[in-house]
């Protein structure tokens, strides 16, 4: 019974914490601008903290000073913005700032690497009626959460690391695609291995039918031309072929 108020309190704490922090996802090696949310003119004092360290400090007189980033960052004393050039994975974390002694909304910076180009590995049953396509890539922590999906014939999308196809699958082309919060990447295209088998058979049947038709028609023409002794008709018919 007595646990209810503390649960409510706990939930309230989580909610306010989420609200008092902006989350910023950025690509490794990009330029990141951290902005205070509401500043009043004129700005006389700026402090930026990274975790518990002082990252940048300005008191209206001397040139801004930065202990952690040194040349890697700059402070705009008119807007209070902190710019980090070529951000590294290890620069991720919570940044807090005070402008004119007023605490601003904290920024949680999350830095990720771009997703790699994935590979498709194929395994089919011995009868070659069903195949499983797997999307493989080197999953590392610096990618964050990776969303894996398949693109079938450039339009249909299917979620998941694996895609099963059968002889009934109509699509001809498959791409595996990866996405994290800062980038996306496609595999090379894979042609439907089952469909192209069917196509080969169909093509052979067509070719066989076509040549036998030609043969029969040819025989008829030769027969006719012998009967009529009309060489002219014969050569004209051959020309049409
Ligand atoms: C900010 O705080 C410092 C020390 O607490 C104080 O000396 C200073 O006057 C304050 N400045 C402003 C602009 O409020
Ligand atoms: C994907 O394929 C390429 C080329 O065959 C290979 O160099 C790479 O190591 C493969 N990556 C994975 C994660 O299997
Ligand atoms: C996967 O990543 C690890 C660590 O970055 C690396 O040592 C390994 O060689 C990678 N494997 C492939 C197949 O790229
Ligand atoms: C694909 O087929 C394999 C083998 O039949 C099965 O184990 C697997 O669960 C299937 N995967 C999906 C995503 O349907
Ligand atoms: C992946 O392929 C799809 C379909 O062809 C295309 O729309 C998308 O832009 C591609 N993404 C990348 C990162 O190349």
Tell me about this structure.
This protein is of the alpha+beta class and 241 residues long. Helices cover 26% and strands 34% of the residues. The protein has three helices and 17 strands. The protein has helices at 3-19, 193-228, 231-240; strands at 21-27, 32-34, 46-50, 53-58, 73-75, 82-84, 93-99, 102-103, 106-112, 119-124, 130-136, 147-152, 156-159, 162-166, 173-179, 184-186, 190-191. The strands form four sheets. Strands 1, 3, 4, 7, 8 and 9 form a six-stranded mixed β-sheet that branches. The termini are far apart. One 2-acetamido-2-deoxy-beta-D-glucopyranose is lined by residues 119, 136-138.
Short characterization:
With 241 residues, this protein is of the alpha+beta class. It has helices at 3-19, 193-228, 231-240, and strands at 21-27, 32-34, 46-50, 53-58, 73-75, 82-84, 93-99, 102-103, 106-112, 119-124, 130-136, 147-152, 156-159, 162-166, 173-179, 184-186, 190-191.
């Amino acid at each position: 019974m007595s646990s209810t108020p503390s649960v409510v309190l706990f939930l309230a704490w989580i909610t306010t914490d989420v609200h008092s922090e902006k989350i910023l996802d950025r690509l490794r090696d990009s330029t990141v601008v951290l902005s205070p949310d509401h500043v009043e003119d004129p700005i006389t004092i700026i402090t930026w903290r990274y975790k518990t360290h002082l990252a940048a400090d300005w008191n209206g007189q001397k040139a801004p000073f930065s202990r952690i980033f040194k040349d890697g960052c700059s402070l705009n004393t008119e807007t209070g913005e902190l710019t980090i050039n070529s951000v590294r994975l290890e620069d991720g974390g919570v940044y807090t700032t005070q402008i004119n002694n007023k605490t601003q909304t904290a920024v949680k910076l999350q830095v990720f690497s771009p997703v790699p180009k994935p590979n498709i590995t194929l395994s089919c049953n011995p009868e070659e009626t069903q195949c499983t396509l797997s999307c493989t890539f080197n999953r590392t922590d610096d990618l964050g959460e990776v969303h894996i999906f398949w693109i079938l014939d450039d339009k249909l999308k299917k979620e998941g690391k694996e895609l099963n196809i059968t002889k009934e699958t109509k699509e001809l082309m498959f791409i595996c695609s990866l996405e994290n919060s800062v980038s996306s990447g496609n595999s090379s295209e894979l042609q439907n291995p089952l469909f192209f088998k069917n196509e080969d058979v169909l093509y052979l049947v067509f070719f066989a039918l076509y040549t036998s038709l030609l043969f029969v028609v040819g025989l008829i023409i030769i027969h006719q031309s012998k009967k009529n002794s009309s060489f002219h008709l014969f050569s004209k018919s051959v020309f049409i072929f």
